[in-house]
Amino acid sequence: MAAQSYIDLPALTSDTFSPTAYANTLVLRTNNPTDAPPLDLSTPLSRVLFDVQEVDTHIDTLTTQNALPIVTHTANRAGASQRVLEEVESQVQALTESYKRLEKEVSERYEAAEEVRKAAERMVRTLRLGRGVQRAVQMGRQVEAQMDAVVQRGEHRGMVPAAHTLLGLRQLFGAIGKGQEGEGLGRVNVVTTLRNEIVAPAERSLLAKAQQLVREFSMSSLLASSSGSAGGQQTYAQTEDMKSRATSSFQALYLLSPTKSGTTLATFTPTLLLQGLQSYLSTALTSSLASLARALATLPQLERTLLEISARCQNIVALETLLASLKPPEHPFLSPSTKQDDQITNLLQPLLHHLDTSSLPSYFWRSMAGQLTGRVNDILARGGVSARTLRTNKDRVRDMIRDCVDRGTRLPGSTENGGKVGNWEREAAVMVGSVVGPLGR
């Protein structure tokens, strides 16, 4: 008991026991911190050795006195461990046999089923690709027949169906998403040949034909009537045929204009249609400006030239009227606008927005007047007979230009007292001012 009290068991068995702190405590018990070296380390070391011997003695005593219970307990644990091991081994063997059975019944069947699944998936993709190729070939034949009727036989009514067929092919060729009908068509040689040798030339031919009809749009009979020929006035059938041709070309250009994903009817810009119409207006402006500049330098030609300009403006008035009456054709790639205010009700709206004008005749007269003053100044700067004649006939030129604007703002085929569309006094004043203004300086 003395030995047990001698050993500091609470300190040695504490959870926070620190060997360094315990050793430091033993050293301080036999040394004074203020003493000079050397330190006395033999006494603390002897104390530690004695404690170790005492603990060893206690362990030996306890194991000697309780040898039988310890051996019995160890034997029981060993027997229990052996039984657990045997049971676990039997379970492992059963599990191994079950796994082998499952591997044979499930895994092998799964591998076979996976191969069947892959084969079925590839067959479905092949079938879908075959249907895509079949549809592409059928649509290619269809557009080939439609374009033959349009180009060879001049059946303009086939332009819009041909445009719809080309849109269908464009949609088919552009379907690259997984599971879509057009997936993988680009890797099929026959489709590549179809696209390069039939579809692309057909689209170019359709665009060329539509642009040609836009360039040839003419409903005014002023020039023919002035020639005195009996057939100068266009018949109703000729007028309707011209409207029908122009309508087909406008709708075809509208449909074939490039689109982007997510574009709505309100945000869609019919680029090809706008380019064709703007080219038509630019040609009319350029021709009118050049001929009028020449006629002002040689006044005997002025009357005929102003008649030609009036005819061109009448065609522009007819073009505006026709575009205002045409609704945009249904486009498979465009979703309807959600806002009622953004709805495009006719084909004239995009053109007016693109040109930033309120009407096409106003755009025609004002654009011409903006460039005409410089041409008149050039004539006056050169001097000579042309400049003197132009100054002398200033009043006559004013009246002729007013008559030109008045004739040009009437619908084709209308009488002199009727058919005028809107009030064009400002445009007439602008045109007169662009010519007569420099003459009065």
Provide key terms for this protein.
441 residues, mainly alpha, 3 domains, 16 helices, 73% helix, elongated
Oligomer: single chain
Helix/strand order, N-terminal first: HHHHHHHHHHHHHHHH
Mean pLDDT: 85
Strand percent estimate: under 5%
Helix percent band: over 70%
Using DSSP, what is the number of strands? 0
The SS-based structural class is mainly alpha
Report the C-alpha radius of gyration, rounded. Answer: 51 Å
Alpha-carbon distance between the two ends: 140 Å
What's the number of domains?
Answer: 3
The global form is elongated
Largest sheet: none
Q: With helices defined by DSSP (H or I, 4 residues minimum), what is the helix count?
A: 16
Which stretches of 5+ consecutive residues score pLDDT under 50?
A: none
Task: Report a brief summary of the structure.
The protein is an all-alpha fold.
Describe this structure in words.
This protein is mainly alpha-helical and 441 residues long. The chain has three domains: 2-65, no CATH class; 99-217 and 237-256, no CATH class; 261-334 and 341-439, no CATH class. Helices cover 73% and strands 0% of the residues. The protein has 16 helices and no strands. It has helices at residues 2-6, 9-12, 19-30, 42-65, 67-151, 159-174, 189-215, 222-226, 236-256, 271-297, 302-325, 348-355, 360-382, 384-392, 394-408, 425-439. Helix 9 packs across helix 10, helix 10 (271-297) packs antiparallel against helix 11 and helix 13 (360-382) packs parallel to helix 16. The longest helix is centred in the first third of the chain and has 85 residues, at 67-151. It is elongated. The model has no long low-confidence stretch (mean pLDDT 85).
